[in-house]
# Entry
Amino acid sequence: MCKKKCQVFSSLKTVCLSGVLMMPVIGVAADSPPDVEWQVGPRTVPVPAGASAMIQKTLAEGGQPSIQARLSEIPSSDEAARALVAKRDKKNSEKAQALAKRMNVKVEEDTIKGVKVFWMTPDEIAPEFQNSLFVQIHGGAYVVGAGMASTPGGIVVANTAKIKAMSIDYRMPPDHPFPAAVDDVVAVYKQLLKKYSHKKIAIGGGSAGGGLSLASVHKMKALGLKTPAAIIAGTPWADLTKTSDSLYTLEGIDRALVTYDGPLAAAAQAYANGHDMKDPLISPVYGDFSDFPPTHLVTGTRDLFLSDTARTHRALRKAGAIADLTVFEGISHGEHLSIFGSPESQEYLAEVAEFLKRYLN
Amino acid sequence: MCKKKCQVFSSLKTVCLSGVLMMPVIGVAADSPPDVEWQVGPRTVPVPAGASAMIQKTLAEGGQPSIQARLSEIPSSDEAARALVAKRDKKNSEKAQALAKRMNVKVEEDTIKGVKVFWMTPDEIAPEFQNSLFVQIHGGAYVVGAGMASTPGGIVVANTAKIKAMSIDYRMPPDHPFPAAVDDVVAVYKQLLKKYSHKKIAIGGGSAGGGLSLASVHKMKALGLKTPAAIIAGTPWADLTKTSDSLYTLEGIDRALVTYDGPLAAAAQAYANGHDMKDPLISPVYGDFSDFPPTHLVTGTRDLFLSDTARTHRALRKAGAIADLTVFEGISHGEHLSIFGSPESQEYLAEVAEFLKRYLN
# Structure
């Protein structure tokens, strides 16, 4: 990549922060992308009128994300990271408790093969899901979302699809980097196969949870296990390297992730812990998707992981798998669920329920 | 919208071209989106390593699009527009002739109800398509693509899916603005219904052709006609107003369209010719999609019409229709076909053939 950064503002004038104007340089190395960069000028982005009124309102009131502010959010040490995560998870655990109560979902802690899990039982289970299970893999960039904070994604699916769910509280860095998370998911899944038919199990989650779901299915295939009947990959972090197009095109526009650089890149480093980030068990988009189960994917027009999601969708299709992609207008990373109660979240959850009904039978 | 434009560059420094720094202003009018704009700083966009090597090469060699250059491309008069279009269509007609020859597709001109059409017969028709027809609606922002220049999209589908196709050379502005194009498509379709079962007809095209396909189906519904069995909407211009999120987020990044302002906005004005641009027969995304046929949609992560395509997909789904969305990595508007021979175009055409096989039977 070019080392000097210059900005050409809509061709009106040229400003170069480094003092040297760089023209695009073409230098194609074998197997490397061409070393050409565009310096794309600033743009004026209004609230998206095609999004729901609720999304529009939160965008108008929430303020513009700051890349600089996000870059400064990297914890200075493992200790600082642990404290930050503990504080955040405590707050989100309390929210999850309230959510479970409001949705009449009973949450029970359990341990399977040494891995902490949470069973989530809705007050009503649909007739077609009497023997089914949705295995929820939480997000949080592989560094946050432990304990009860891992359950909200499962609670809402349990409630809306009327299906029993389980959240796997997989181990995370800094203490337990890759492959601990994959190992935990697969260890629990193997035990679940003793109780459930693989045709009655779906696995899924958002962000890192979507990526880990896909990576775990790669691992299941490698171990010769029967794979789940469906995957719900919500804006999956399918590539931990800074490769996807939308990491560049939508930087500063996705108000949830804001930028790859900063906490996200730090989390990727902490998780991979020196392993090749293009290992399909870390970045599942690089894996072989043949014989993958039907996979439901969702992203948004402002999602930094738009490309991760779209690339995964294409990789699945190319391998002959059933893959269904939805892109919500004006939605940043994860907001198809995180702005809960929006029309978009309701549409999304209804589609997930339909998808599970279709493929768990 | 805010009248003054200011740029905040990654929070590093503030520049205001108009001399006045505007903070986001919240002023929500009834039924209007909140009057808030983000000024998003410049970004450095490399060649997308997740796209095919062929797409990467064309991006590296093609140079960065210039918004200013595109803005200057508006013809100064109707006469100038006619001359420009005639020149472009002549060149593209010659290319289409060569394409038809190379693909062994026989092209025959005909007139149906006063509308010029082109029949396209491949050298081999698949057994399942013996009585089927793909009706190709060309793109070109409702202002270019007349005559033989209207045929390439039909030629490649005829060749790869092994299906007979027809291109409707609908009338266009400045001489024939809306509703001439819709009227022509529907007039031809009504005649086709005398020869073909509606269950054996698919309709589709790219850009304006995708939008016009969708608008024509709205019109067919309004007339009580039986609708086609499938729609192939390639990055449809489904909203001629400047509403879609990606018109803002991807401005200057889509190297095909570059910006909504300029020739595209001028074409929208010329086509609508004073009619309400939110009329579903002009901007089909605003229509009622109930009872719509299965629709295949494609776009790219750099496509200015990413949002038009995604919003159409959601509108179809909300109405209960079958809708299938694909987003190609690093692809600008229309490049899923226009960079012909790329792996992306091959994947796309194979999917279109599959989609037609599934729904024309």
Notes: Chain B touches chain A through 75 residues (CB under 8 Å). DSSP finds eleven helices and twelve strands in chain B. The longest strand of chain B covers residues 105-112. The domain at 78-359 of chain B is CATH 3.40.50.1820 (Rossmann fold).
